[in-house]
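Methods: example folding runs. The two proteins below were folded one after another, and each record is reproduced exactly as written to the output file, sequence line first and structure-token line second.
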Amino acid sequence: MPPWIVSTTAAWQARIWLTEGNLDAAQQWIQERLLSLDDELQFAREAEHIVFARILVAQGDLQDAINLLERLTKKAEAGDRVTRQIEMLLVLALAQEAQGDTHKAMTALKRAITLAEPEGFIRIFVDEGPPMARLLYEAASRGIAPEYVSRLLTAFPVAEPEQAGPSETQTPEPDLIEPLSEREIEVLQLIAEGLTNREVASRLFLSLYTVKAHTHNIYGKLGVHNRTQAVGRARALGVLTST
């Protein structure tokens, strides 16, 4: 088989281990494939180096991952490999966010979105999971490509779906997922903890009417119909963290 096919196959095996949380196997794979930060970057091994960067992020070696990804991105840009560029930029954004630099993460994400939007890429974002949803939600709050970011966010699965009753009617998804306000997030957090509307009102020193209004707004912004769906989508988007 051509070397690039062998390399791509090896990269997918390592990514499976990474998804499973098997860092020992991933680390052994790095050694077996003789990967290092000083490698000369070649197209034939590009897929392996991207996974190498993912493993570095998972291990907490964030600056090494960022340096490698920046080199990879320049190489892919020079070769006009758009899909690879997008993937690299997404991983770079996640690494920068993990490092605590949201500004740089947004810059990388915006570059990825600019490349992805004309071709309508969706799956490449969703495959990055909840951390990417959280970054996209932050992008939405900053007004970055609002229509496209909304499409991306609605593609993420609801983490805790609820069976609809036979008489429940479904309404279309909203055209735009509008970011929740700080107060709405507070209300939603208490809902996630199992508090009733009356208990939420008491905890936050609000009227019951105000809490119901906030809840209605939360449902509309998240495109859901009940409490369970609201909590599930908020967790899938990274707005709430699972407890």
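Second run, written to the same file directly after the first:
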Amino acid sequence: MNRLALVMIARDEARAIARALESARPHVDAMIVLDTGSADDTREIARASGAQVHEFAWCDDFAAARNAALAHSDADWNLILDADEWIVGDGRALGPDALPAGGGGVLGEVRIENLADQPGVEGTAQSWLPRILPRGVRYEGRIHEQPASDLPRRRLDLVLRHDGYAAENLARKGARNETLLMAELQARPDDAYLWFQLAKEHQARGRAPQAAFCFTEALRLAPEDVGWRHALVVRALIALKDNGQVEDALALADAEVAHWQASPDFYFVIGDLYLEAASREPDRAMDHFLPVVDSAWKRCLEIGERPDLDGAVAGRGGHMAAHNLAVFYETLGRAEQAAEYAALARRLRS
């Protein structure tokens, strides 16, 4: 019996699957790939990389596919990896000290660095997801499936990188996720997490009105203590601003500010929001809006980076905030301060 197995579902992932498997192979005892109907060389590449390859007839249900893949594993622990993800760093968190033989009573959460290039959400956004499951745990949910388990979650020092949100890869996937999310919402119209995921799909494709509507529904339905609340609030602020709902965004910011005093992402977006408000009401800009822009981006630098926050974007607590301050002061004609923050941005980026 194996201690740790990689378990993956894949379809038409010849572009990326070797990268994913090669990153995991040194750390696992077995690699299992369930192909859901590839028309390219996905299966052949997976076998050449050392994986066991099985086939599954796609049925528009990610949980069903995940569970079929898990049924091929006899390991104490299963590492769930998608083909457009790969392990970065040394992978010591996958060793027997952290994941002992015989399994354990926890779900292991890992940090995923999502590479995105869409306006408003470009950068590397961090998310924490349960990707290390003890034997016997299965999934539920047709789309954005989750482990069906009440086991406690433990964050592990493992980082995955994901490029599936890059524009070219989103285009390749087409409307698949959106179609499945709409079907799920017909069955579960009060599920805040589904509204949140549909909002992100719209936002990634530049559909501001749809994104703003779906984020608003997610905010209405979501409990305040859900683990993805930070990402929801920050991305909702961006969506409302992009849709021209500046007053609504300002109201949301006022309602949420007490909860995110230590979030550089929140203050980074506040700076953008108040700059937009200043452009709409120039008579109030100097006395009301621009001082908030200045203090918000400086607050980002005071807090620093917070990769532990779900949805945090790398740089908002560092070089991105400094760059914005440099441009801000240059626009105001304050050359000395602009140069100071431009130099800081270069230092932080390096």
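Comment on the second run: Strands lie at 4-10, 30-35, 52-55, 77-80, 85-88, 107-116, 123-134, 139-140, 146-147, 153-162.
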